[in-house]
Amino acid sequence: MGAPAAPALATAPAAPASASASAPPAAAPAVPPVATLEPVPAAPAEPPGSSPRDEQPSGPAPATGAVAADAAALLASRPLIVPVAGVPPSALTDMFDDARGGRRHEAIDILAPTGTKVFAVDDGTVAKLFTSKPGGLTVYQFDPQGRLAYYYAHLDRYAEGLKEGMTLRRGDLVGYVGTSGNAGNTPHLHFAVFRLGPERRWWEGDPVNPYPALRQARPAG
Fold this sequence. Notes:
By secondary structure, this protein is mainly beta. The protein is built from three helices and eleven strands; from the N terminus they run H-H-E-E-E-E-E-E-E-E-E-E-E-H.
């Protein structure tokens, strides 16, 4: 009897084909778009819109003590003239502390007929020509050292040729008395002085009472 036949060997199942070989390549995951940031606007060189304060420049609380005394002494050292033609120093009235709409006036009003000439009280530079709802047609003048600003408001019109950056001499014509802004029906010059900060912003500073210095000034003309 011959030897029994050897049992058939089991065939191992074929290995499955590689996924990479048979399946299409997977798509790369979508990258979410990067948000675009809006640029941060730079601080404005000057306030937008109208003047930040009712009639004159804004600033910190009114200076007191040594600061106020220093500002007053600085103003008193300037050789000023009364800014309105035909008005003697003796006709001026101190109204710096008077109430105006719930706040301190911080200026002097010099009454004169419409069209009366308004002169630069001191040497200096025209820092800004500005029109606002309260102040109307206004001029901001810096003194020669850039320490004080002189503010003329409610003008009827500017002097011909007046422009920002031009040099002024004491007694130069800057404009004419009027009723622009909130002056009502009474023509007058609203005149204010303020001590500038280190940034020398025409709209900002510490108010200084102009009355004592103007009482010692000489008349214009």
